[in-house]
Amino acid sequence: MKKYIVIGTYTLFFLAALTSCKKFLDVVPDNVATIDNAFTMRTQAMKFLFTCYSFMPKNGQLGDDPAMVGGDELWEIPERGAYLDMAKGFQSKVGPLGDRWQSMYQAIRDCNIFLENIGKVPDMQETERQRWISEVKFLKAYYHFNLVRMYGPIPMIKTNLPISADVNEVKVTRDPVDSCFSYIARLLDEAAPGLPVTIISPTTEAGRITRPIALSLKAKVLVTAASPLFNGNTDQASLKNLNGTPLFNTTYSKVKWDSAAVACKKAIDLCESAGIKLYVYNPAFQQFSLTDTIKTQLSITNAVTEKWNSEIIWANTQSNTADLQRLISSWWDPLYLDGVITRGELSPPLKIAEMFYTGNGVPINEDKTWDYNGRYNLRTAEDADKLYIRKGYTTAALHFDREPRFYADLGFDGGVYYGHGHYDDKSYMDLFYLEGKFKQRDGKGKYGYNTVTGYNLKKLIYFQNTINSSNDYSVVDYPYPIMRLSDLYLLYSEALNESAGPSPEVNKYVDLVRKRAGLGTVAASWTNYSTNPAKFQNQDGMRAIIHQERLIELAFESQRLWDLRRWKESAKELNNPIKGWDLSQTTPISYYRITVLYNQTFGAKDYFWPVAEDNMTANRNLVQNLGW
């Protein structure tokens, strides 16, 4: 597939070069002779098919994924790229940070060219032609969805205009947001029947679109459409086209949640019938007999990092993770302390560390058995903690008695890293652990390495990566997941709760995710350990539980930024300061003092990207998003 994408990219480059001078929304296909040549035979048409794929945003890459550091989930070294500036509130309508307006419309334009011309190809089977058409319809829907999430109501480009179209026809207007979602869903409905249920040849076709992917994306699209940002959002009442057409329906519709729940269940049923299931670590052969503690850790992390595991619905083959893993890995190996190939640069803030549950499966400020007020006190790890925290190490009480996902996702001062050349968990004193204080091997002050908050991102690192020398870090690469089954399960629970309130069916799918994470059921955990034991029995309480479950389960997977926005919770979360520990200190009592790194600001206008001024100037029919 990579070979074809590379070939297709040359076609993309040529087509893009023809239109690069145009600043307005370009939907007119030019150079018709070139387009005709691209569809004279199957091999040429295949190049154009993968050109359509080549526009996919590269999830998990700092330069092309605003959800990595554009919110509050990860903080990075200040001199890094544009998305951190967006997180700091420096977004602008003059060259918007992370602007995708032109690239996504170029993608949609090429998808339309493909759909208009694929029928001309003589040397291909009709079943294959229909599959390709379905793939491109899916991609066209996906690119529209990316635009809607970023900009809200957008111009929908259903077909390209003829080359005879004058400039006024090209200057299109924005469509109401409900119409945008309806069109995206309709494209996915049209695409699904022509797609295969599974990929027959993973070596050549992994990453291509399947029917479970199409139905799962439709589920996410409809959940997004039903969410507060788009469903009855009165804050957007004054956003209208120049002719007075409202772009948001400010009346809440429960029917949207009903439809979303149906779509989620349909996607779940198809995924499960296709053999997609929650990943549980259970290899056919392993050298050592592992404890349940480490098996649970590997079940959590490998659900993301094990290439094409049973839980992956869709992963992006154009967005592999080798460079990301080198960037986020800490330098745990004491044999190679002078190396700088791993950097540990992306740092979860303190608020994210506090987001994870206690070991009893409830929030830390609700657990009646957990000392919330004393969470910043010092505590020394004992034998019962040895697979999570280095035995005998003194660290913050916040790091003790937490749920397994806390230890699977986060690295911290004294925290243990299983694997990376050390696989016998019975020899627990041989396992790597972090030393995070000033100028320690994983702390601030080391040349070429920095942590910002005192926490490290651990979740996205494959456990069999190894440091072989100061300049050699062997990485097991994997395509970055776009959607996992746990994501779909939690979308269904959310939609069902919003549609009909709490029920055993709502709890069922949350509990499946919690069970794999080593936790008890919602009912048992809240009844036995929470200071609010009836929380799960009402819609508002269950909503809060599902939201926190999503933020924990999908942490660091490019989901939090979009979830907070669609829930309209960004204004609450992104106006809190980014905090960490005092990294310039060498002793525990001084190191574990809270330090404010940055005071974030987020206003109502920040829920949507601004349309770039250049686009507004070139197309006077466009209206700008509110506040910009």
Concise summary:
The chain is mostly helical. It has helices at residues 2-19, 32-37, 42-53, 66-69, 82-87, 101-117, 126-151, 167-170, 177-191, 202-205, 211-226, 254-273, 292-305, 322-328, 350-355, 404-409, 485-500, 504-516, 522-529, 539-553, 560-566, 570-573, 588-591, 613-618, and strands at residues 312-320, 378-380, 394-396, 410-412, 416-417, 432-433, 455-457, 466-469, 472-474, 479-484, 577-581, 594-599.
Protein model, in words:
- The chain is 40% helix and 8% strand.
- The protein contains 24 helices and twelve strands.
- Strands 1-10 form a two-stranded antiparallel ribbon. Strands 2-3 form a two-stranded antiparallel sheet. Strands 4-7 form a two-stranded antiparallel sheet.
- It is globular and about 75 Å long.
- It starts with a helix and ends in a 10-residue tail after the last helix.
- The N terminus is likely disordered.
- Belongs to the SusD family.
- Keywords: Cell outer membrane, Membrane, Signal.
- Its main location: membrane.
